[in-house]
Amino acid sequence: MIGKYEIERVESGIPGFDDLIQGGFPKGTTVLVTGPTGSGKTTFAVQFVYKGAEMYNEPGVIVTLEERAQDLRREMKAFGWDLEEYEKKRMIAIVDGVSAVVGIPSEEPFVLEGNINAEDFLRYIYRVVKSINAKRLVIDSIPSIAFRLREESRIREVLLQLNTILLEIGVTSILTTEAPDPSRGRISKYCVEEYIARGVVLLDFVEKGVELKRYLLIRKMRETKHSMKKYPFEITEEGIVVYPSGEVY
């Protein structure tokens, strides 16, 4: 409850995480998942869509701008996630945003053209979402949008357009970005992403003795009461697990 009205929630499918955000993401919100390389951003995002289909019967779209769709499918099988199974059922759609850029032919059903502009990119994502009546959307990642569109100087404008469209069509969305230096407060590549998103989740590492431990911090989540503490999480054989009652770093 926030004030006197109840917020409809979308469960993340990530064990332990929803305990930190009053049961799930506010429905229709846009959440930025940020962190350094190797922190688990892609796994977090794909888990959100895959578990949405598997556990909650909610279709989802994954826009992959950093690796080919076939590579993403193969990597996710390490967690026992058969993305192709749900693609056949039209519960998941994967948009290949890599092949055309690097000049590799693609047989994927959803492929972004190599010379697409920002407006066409947004229209295409809108059409794919509508084609399977998606309730969840992942775009991995924001820096790759800027690189792909060759319009880095317009990234703030493009992100504002994107956020407006996502709010209009009502999907609950995760956008990923790089955090260059979280310890110094740099939690996004362009320093604008966190202001546009309605929620911000930071995945990072902390030194504990002679090893690195992963932690999660919810920097912002509108319409939600949440802790500002750092919580441990692991990437297990079945995906990400958050420990809300574990040791707080």
TrEMBL record:
Transmembrane segments: none
Keywords carried by this UniProt record: ATP-binding, Nucleotide-binding
GO MF annotation list: ATP binding
Keyword NAD recorded: no
InterPro entries for this protein: KaiC-like_dom, KaiC_dom, P-loop_NTPase
The UniProt record lists the keyword Nucleotide-binding: yes
Pfam families for this protein: ATPase
Residue ranges of every copy of the KaiC domain listed in the record: 8-249
Protein name: ATPase
